[in-house]
Design a protein that fits this description.
The chain is α/β, with parallel strands linked by helices. The protein has 9 helices and 14 strands. The model has no long low-confidence stretch (mean pLDDT 93).
Length: 316
Amino acid sequence: MIRFGVCSLEDLYANRLSDAFGKEKNISIELYEELFHNDAPSASEYQEIVLSRFKCGQVFKRTHLQRFSEFDTATLSAVQKQFRQARNELLAVHDLAASDGRTSLELYHQLINLFNDGFSFLATDVLPWVYSVGKPSERLRVITDDGGRTMEIVYPPFVFNLARQESKFYWINKVLVKRLQKEAATLSALFVQRSSEVRARKISLIHKKCRELSERGGNFSFEQYNVLEPINRRFDMVRAMNILNPGYFNQREISRILESVFSSLRAGGLFVTGSNEGRESGVEGGIYLRAEAGFHLLFASGSGSCVHEAIARFNR
């Protein structure tokens, strides 16, 4: 059998998102950028749909507005209690693995209500942009990161996400993607070499309002950052939502992330972490105080963070 992808806004807006058997189609991540330039009121919601089908490695970039609403309320209560006294320095906040930043915006605007402009807000993600690479006048395009890792192959009307295994049921897709992978690898290599044989178009995966805030040069910024790397900055609060998950990282990697978080937090700072599924689902998480040698739980939501034991064991 055969399954096409979603390569155009026309198909996206027509909600042709599943095949005849009800199986989800892959959606070209290129449509995220096209939606950025689209003035339709629903453009932001369709961007959520595009991101929900995009997978890079073991990680999805699923996100939606008001995802952490109740948990944010508890977070802001803890922030207000911990930092309510007058400060000589700006409150510094780091929102890790922020996807396209739409949930960062919600927290940012609530912090404005508490501190006016007396804080700085940094949102980061490992993949805030990708590139669409192809040769002029040819159908084949590859979606790659800065280092040339191919994540998606677009060959209209097909879209292949390489983090997903094609089912044997769609045997035509399996045959086609196998044939295209060699040429896709060549395009990625030419991109890395900055060859004039290919044209590369940068696709920003940052929400429109986040881009606007960043470009103003105020107290909001969005940067690329890998949670497995140290960050040479200090913060009063670090938030890590839907990223500290044993399904994404092994125990050694989780320990590395906690070491980086601890080192970047000032003494008395807050570490906020949790996870949830779709809309209306509660957050399983916790709010921790950065003590002298580790973390101390201040508040637990639901059954707590799925990596609570690792956080509780952490000792510098």
